[in-house]
Design brief:
By secondary structure, this protein is α+β, with helices and mostly antiparallel strands. It contains 17 helices and 30 strands. The protein has a six-stranded antiparallel β-barrel. Strands 2-1-7-8 form a four-stranded parallel sheet, with helices on both faces. Strand 28 and strand 29 form a beta hairpin. Helix 5 runs parallel beside helix 17, helix 9 crosses helix 12 and helix 9 crosses helix 14. The longest helix has 28 residues. The chain is globular and about 90 Å long.
Length: 705
């Protein structure tokens, strides 16, 4: 490399390509491919007695990357590291400096990958923020202590290959506790009475619900059919008269721009995206997408943030855009009220488009369908956040019949405001704030007499609390101060992969294993799975970053109590492992007897001589397809992926033949001879070979795997 060369180090190749375009050959831009060092994989790697000193090792899969980085920085005049603007990014920057033994490394950061943001960052380099690094190391060491000590313990006592963690174990506890609330819930009966009414002068049907007795302000509670019938009898022959008309203007303010957790929640509710998918796509939009002649371009700001702050420049651009496209009256005046929240790191902005003038339809030809959906959601939410409130005319009418008051509420939009661009999704189980509103009521006046069309009594039952969806679980974790925006997606992935919970109709249901592990942890490590204690740890990590707390103090206080609980649990925690069931079958590999063991995905045959002999076999023989393998002619057998137990068909000659297909084979492909026909999304049979375009109609029901 030439001596005058300057180098910028980032995490990902995509980010490198985008930044390289802006630097026009004046810099070499290289990528670390994420973290390059970590604690050892098979050793504890933390010297507790010497002050919790961590031992870091190059990640095996990054050895070649490290060689390339060393070559890139050799003889470089200036070296900048532009990793992400958060704790993890700061830690990666520090690891780069340490691993490459660099003295003059300069740290730059930007919240968005645009030409101007990169230029400004290069003009204002800084030192690595060691308080951020300390906070990240404290978090990593805490997670290592909990994971490295607890995971083997519960694997030994409950079932092999289990794991525990500061955040994941609390998330599972929330799901288990919610399930027990549902199991213990006793529904209560209640009734409502609705009157269908109309003005006498001009028929216009509307509804009013029984609210209270006229003599008191206490709402009426009807707990049985006999009570409802008693009220209906008391209303026979009553005169229905308007006793109060209240008109008011109601403003609905725009939602704030996205943070990480609100983006994950809204993408889950509106688009059906799992949190992991949302973060993957957001990362792609942040790091840069090829926009034809424009080249690689970052479309959104940094997607790991819990701040709702927006830069003045971006606000100004958004308001100019709104005035030009919707009219001046649609521009928000003043600043929104931002609720004060604990644990908010305001280092960078909310998630927004890097250029509000880059409309979703303009970039649509260059994005995948999912990228476009997420970009549109972020664009709409940001534009809406800078728009005027929606205005509604709300009319509330109280109507008296004998000793009872009924209430009717009508709501009509007067000015769309931000609703012209965006409408917030709501949780499936959440009731709208204006649930009783029914659109425009007829003109009504005080003392006006109405005609009763009908009275409708209706039986209801109280419902248990709903199971968590991904959106509501993320919301709960955030509200409790558990974890960080960046941890929600990996936490959810982990608890699903471990088999502690499963998703049924997009809702989390704890498994028997989830209950077993949670109950054991609650009994022996109550603090580790305590919501309040976990939130306190997050607070202390923030204080380390702010320089208000010392890393060693936090680790010492945590470890002292944890180590005592751990020693007690080793002695007192009962074994819950199911015992192997003996059989008369003989192991074909060593001649020992086979036993039936219970694993993560159910029961299976295993050799009793384990670990000397590792023979295993499914309890049921693999199902055989009638369609032969197109590569070698062998049998296609139904198998299950180890990671998630998803079914697929694979060749019996694996690993010599690696042919697999995710769906049930129907017949050999008559066109390409390299694939098999499977049922496509549109109901036709299509070839599993993506290069083949063969299609034909389904002539018989297709057996599904």
């Amino acid at each position: 490399m030439a001596t005058e060369k300057r180098v910028v180090i980032v995490e990902s190749p995509t980010k490198a390509r985008t930044i390289e375009k802006y630097l026009a050959g004046r810099f070499a831009v290289v990528s670390t491919m994420g973290h390059i060092r970590d604690l050892p994989k098979h050793r504890f790697g933390v010297n507790i007695s010497e002050g919790f000193v961590p031992t870091y090792e190059p990640l095996p899969e990054r050895k070649e990357i490290l060689k390339k980085l060393k070559s890139a920085v050799q003889n470089a005049r200036e070296i900048y590291v532009a990793t992400d603007p958060d704790r993890e990014g700061e830690a990666i920057a520090w690891h780069v400096k340490e691993a490459l033994k660099l003295k003059d490394l300069q740290r730059i950061e930007f919240h968005e990958i645009t030409r101007e943001a990169v230029r400004r960052a290069l003009e204002h380099p800084r030192e690595i923020d060691m308080q951020r690094v300390e906070a990240q190391q404290a978090r990593r060491i805490l997670d290592r202590i909990v994971g490295y000590m607890l995971s083997p313990l519960i694997s030994q006592k409950i079932r092999s290959r289990l794991s525990a963690g500061r955040v994941q174990s609390v998330a599972v506890r929330l799901i288990c506790e919610r399930e027990r609330e549902i199991q213990n819930f006793v529904p209560e009966e209640y009734w409502s009475i609705t009157a269908t009414l109309t003005p006498q002068e001009e028929p216009h049907l509307f509804e009013a619900k029984l609210l209270k007795r006229a003599a008191t302000d206490e709402k009426i509670k009807i707990s049985s059919e006999s009570q409802a019938q008693e009220i209906l009898r008391a209303l026979e022959g009553a005169t229905w008269r308007v006793v109060k008309v209240e008109e008011k203007e109601q403003r609905r303010h725009a939602p704030l721009p996205f943070t990480t957790s609100t983006l994950q929640q809204e993408a889950n509710k509106k688009l059906g995206f799992p949190t992991k998918k949302t973060m993957t796509i957001a990362q792609e939009l942040y790091e840069g997408v090829e926009l034809g002649a424009e080249g690689a371009t970052g479309l959104i700001t940094y997607m790991r943030t819990d701040s709702v702050r927006i830069a003045e420049e971006a606000q100004r651009a958004a308001r100019e855009f709104i005035a030009a496209h919707y009219g001046r009256e649609f521009v928000r005046q003043g600043e929104p009220r931002i609720p004060q929240k604990a644990h908010v790191q305001d280092a960078h902005e909310a998630i927004r488009p890097t250029d509000v003038r880059r409309l979703p339809e303009d970039v649509a030809p260059y994005l995948t369908p999912d990228q476009l959906k997420l970009y549109r959601l972020i664009w709409q939410r940001f534009v809406a956040s800078q728009m005027a409130p929606a205005v509604f005319d709300v009319v509330s009418v109280d109507i008296q019949a004998n000793d009872y008051i009924f209430r009717a509420t009508g709501s009509v939009m007067k000015f769309a405001g931000w609703l012209a661009v965006y409408e917030e999704a709501r949780d499936e189980d959440a009731k709208p704030a204006d649930e009783e509103a029914q659109g425009r009521l007829p003109p009504l006046r005080d003392q006006q007499v109405l005609d009763l069309i009908k009275l409708t009594p209706k039986q209801h039952f109280t419902e248990p609390p709903p199971r968590y969806t991904e959106a509501t679980l993320v919301k709960a974790l955030e509200e409790h101060g558990i974890g960080r925006p960046s941890t929600y997606a990996p936490t959810i992935s982990t608890i699903l992969e471990r088999g502690y919970v499963k998703l049924e109709k997009k809702r989390f249901v704890p498994t028997e294993l989830g209950f077993l592990v949670t109950d054991a942890l609650v009994k022996h490590f109550p603090k580790i799975v305590d919501v309040g204690f976990t939130a306190l740890i997050e607070e202390e990590l923030d204080k380390i970053e702010e320089g208000k707390l010392d890393r060693l103090t936090v680790l010492q206080e945590f470890y002292k109590e944890f180590a005592e609980a751990f020693e007690r649990a080793k002695r007192e925690m009962e074994s819950l492992k199911p015992k192997p069931i003996e059989t008369e079958e003989i192991c074909p590999e060593c001649g020992s007897k086979l036993v039936i063991r219970t694993g993560r995905y159910g029961q299976f045959y295993a050799c009793s001589a384990f670990p000397k002999c590792r023979y295993t076999r499914p309890l049921e023989e693999p199902k055989e397809s009638s369609v032969p393998c197109p590569k070698c002619g062998g049998k296609l057998l139904k198998r299950y992926a180890r990671k998630d137990r998803r079914s697929f068909f694979g060749c019996e000659h694996y690993p010599k033949c690696d042919f697999t297909v995710s769906q049930t084979p129907v017949k050999p492909c008559p066109s390409c001879k390299e694939g098999v026909l499977i049922e496509g999304k549109d109901g036709e049979l299509v070839c599993s070979n993506k290069q083949c375009e063969h299609r034909e109609p389904v002539v018989a029901p297709v057996e599904r795997s």
